[in-house]
Task: inverse folding
């Protein structure tokens, strides 16, 4: 099936030699909501601007609905971009701002007015239509920016840190609106953010980037459950990363690895291995029968907050892990700091990755 958007080995080196993006591959289905997530400077905006056509591509190709648009100017692409600061024209009215993209395209006046009216109505903006854009609140400006992006009926809407300027409450409201709107319109959304909760909460798939490369492309749940690289394991969620080496010859892909704290399932075959353990996968037991997968340490501290016991278990002088238990567990309550403990780990929750 033809994809809505396809990036094939796309890269960008700026004239000053900065390699902002390398070998970016991505296929996006019609109506998908995809987030680009990563720390500041990792190349998210550069990639979005290359998709929009505002930035030349150093190497690779961009396809939209199967058509190669690598050298097609922005206004001829089936995209619309919404910028972080909304880039509204402050002295133009709301109506003029929204009509702008249609004017650029040379849409006949009657058709333009009809489309603008419809979208203003959809975003509940009719009462502000004649007000200047700089006389509006942050949330209203946000809606105008969305209306302006959508009025040209793009196939793909590109949003660059679009909610970044809003306070937390408004941000949550607009996040909900955005998700509903996207479902309703069935338009493909590509959304750039450095906020993890936003990417994981809104999108169907997340592209995690660091240093100009794609680390992992997965559904939000799989990013949590099955990180594929040390960067993702560290960046997403609250994981403990434990390095280890294979124990003996593994006859399958999953042998045992020896860690400084105990034995875990491993990838074997001489690979440097890292076990990723989500905070909720630990089970504490007083020293006793070990699980199939277990680590040993000493209780460093425990604090009861409501019905939850927050424990810290020291594995060695460098590493402490956080463990949550039911506060009413007598066996755990009987432990004092310094007591040796076993941490059982649910094997199904552990992910082994190459270090
Ligand atoms: P992000 O959106 O993830 O914060 P950017 O795509 O803005 O990252 O930037 C990626 C890298 O490219 C950074 O190292 C940034 O400093 C660099 N960069 C961005 N724009 C330019 C430019 N016009 N010229 C040179 N380097 C740039």
Result:
């Amino acid at each position: 099936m033809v994809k809505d958007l396809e990036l094939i080995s796309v890269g960008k080196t700026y004239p000053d030699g900065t390699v902002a993006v390398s070998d970016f591959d991505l296929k996006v289905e019609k109506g998908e909501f995809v987030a680009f997530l990563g720390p500041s400077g990792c190349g998210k905006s550069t990639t979005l601007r290359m998709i929009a056509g505002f930035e030349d591509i150093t190497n690779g190709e961009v396809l939209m609905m199967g058509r190669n648009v690598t050298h097609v100017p922005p206004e001829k692409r089936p995209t619309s971009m919404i910028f972080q600061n909304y880039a509204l024209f402050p002295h133009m009215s709301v109506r003029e701002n929204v009509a702008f993209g249609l004017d650029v395209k040379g849409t006949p006046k009657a058709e333009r007015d009809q489309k603008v009216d419809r979208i203003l109505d959809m975003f509940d903006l009719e009462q502000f239509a004649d007000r200047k854009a700089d006389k509006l609140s942050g949330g209203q400006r946000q809606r105008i920016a969305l209306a302006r992006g959508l009025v040209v009926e793009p196939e793909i809407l590109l949003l660059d840190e679009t909610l970044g300027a809003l306070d937390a409450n408004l941000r949550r409201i607009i996040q909900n609106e955005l998700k509903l709107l996207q479902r309703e319109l069935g338009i493909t959304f590509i959304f750039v953010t450095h906020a993890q909760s936003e990417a994981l909460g809104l999108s169907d798939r997340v592209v995690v980037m660091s240093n100009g490369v794609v680390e992992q492309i997965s559904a939000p749940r799989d990013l949590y459950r099955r990180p594929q690289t040390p960067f993702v394991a560290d960046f997403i969620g609250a994981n403990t990363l434990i390095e280890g080496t294979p124990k003996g010859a593994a006859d399958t892909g999953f042998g045992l690895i020896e860690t400084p704290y105990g034995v875990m399932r491993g990838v074997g075959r001489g690979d440097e291995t890292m076990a990723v353990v989500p905070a909720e996968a630990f089970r504490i037991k007083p020293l006793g029968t070990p699980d199939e997968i277990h680590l040993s340490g000493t209780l460093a501290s425990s604090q009861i907050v409501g019905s939850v016991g927050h424990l810290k278990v020291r594995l060695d002088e460098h590493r402490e892990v956080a463990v949550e238990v039911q506060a009413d567990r007598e066996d755990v309550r009987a432990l004092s700091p310094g007591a040796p403990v076993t941490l059982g780990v649910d094997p199904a929750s552990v992910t082994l990755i190459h270090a």
